[in-house]
Design a protein that fits this description.
309 residues, mainly alpha, 10 helices, 0% strand
């Protein structure tokens, strides 16, 4: 029990003890007053009368202290229950702070200084995604532009992977920079916001992506999915095996219309992101991408949605 709960419990018990003493003193005063004021009866009282007198004096005292003892025990239980609720609330807040960052964490794409969002320990992306992604010799599609109309450089694989895993907090400068860069691209901003929405909703059900490590799928399976294959050929992408997480997410998908719409929106944008960027990543970068929080949410929700066959 914490110090505050212990002090509260002791204060309540002291108050109950004082109340018991006061009631005892009042009862003894009434008994004494009765003996002083009652007229003397002729002859000595019988045994039954003496027994009734003794019991009438003692029983109320016993009942008073029995009630005091029960009230003290109840005060202890209440203090312990309040302390337990406080501890659970603190643990839940700490877990939510680590894994369920609030919506303002992802600013609008046109903001100059997007604010970082707190998140749990990130899957390291620098080690496996350090090589720059190859770029095609010519891309007929129009390139993203800055606000002034000047063409903007496409997001490289490492930056995208860091952004999809989200920053660890205000001190995670590389991830914050990656997120800022990715948010400048409207296409990446959409998938990041959609990923944040589903991760936040799942965290509201105590489902945190860092607690759901997936069974790794080969990079070739990810590439087949990005190329449009579905069914048993890409079934390995449903690598989240936690039965409780699957049950909770499936129940939400059936019963919660907002969660269902958010999930379909996220799956559609993440699918499109894979189609755009996966061909430019090497196998090591694909493996790291699969461990990001966004990809874990994609594997969980894609499995219960049936898109992996």
């Amino acid at each position: 029990m914490s110090l505050v709960a212990r002090i509260t419990s002791l204060a309540q018990r002291d108050a109950l003890t004082v109340t018991g003493i006061a009631l005892t003193a009042a009862w003894l005063f009434l008994v004494a007053l009765f003996w002083l004021l009652v007229p003397e009866a002729e002859g000595s009282p019988g045994g039954i009368a003496r027994l009734a007198t003794v019991m009438g004096t003692i029983l109320p005292l016993a009942l008073i202290w029995l009630a005091v003892g029960m009230a003290r025990a109840l005060a202890v239980l209440r203090a312990e229950a309040a302390d337990l609720r406080l501890r659970l609330s603190q643990m839940r807040d700490m877990a939510a702070t680590r894994s369920a960052p609030p919506r303002p964490a992802l600013p609008d794409a046109d903001e100059a200084e997007p604010q970082p969002r707190p998140a749990p320990a990130a899957v390291p992306v620098a080690a496996a995604a350090s090589r720059a992604a190859p770029r095609p010799a010519a891309d007929p599609r129009p390139q993203p532009t800055r606000g002034s109309g000047e063409p903007r450089d496409p997001i490289d694989a490492e930056t995208l992977i860091r952004a999809l895993n989200f920053p660890d907090g205000a001190d995670d400068a590389p991830a914050i920079a990656a997120l800022r860069a990715a948010l400048q691209d409207p296409g990446q901003a959409r998938v990041l916001r959609a990923a944040q929405d589903v991760v936040t909703l799942l965290a509201g059900q105590d489902l945190y992506m860092d607690d759901l490590p997936p069974d790794p799928a080969p990079a070739a399976v990810w590439r087949r999915f990005a190329a449009g294959e579905r069914g048993s050929a890409v079934a390995a992408l449903g690598g989240i095996q936690d039965p409780l997480a699957l049950d909770i997410a499936a129940s939400l998908l059936r019963k919660d219309e907002i969660f269902r719409d958010t999930t379909h929106h996220f799956l559609r944008h993440f699918d499109a992101m894979l189609t755009r960027h996966l061909p430019q990543m090497d196998d090591a970068q694909v493996a790291v991408l699969a461990q990001t929080r966004s990809a874990r949410a994609f594997m969980l929700l894609g499995r219960i949605s049936g898109i992996f066959g």
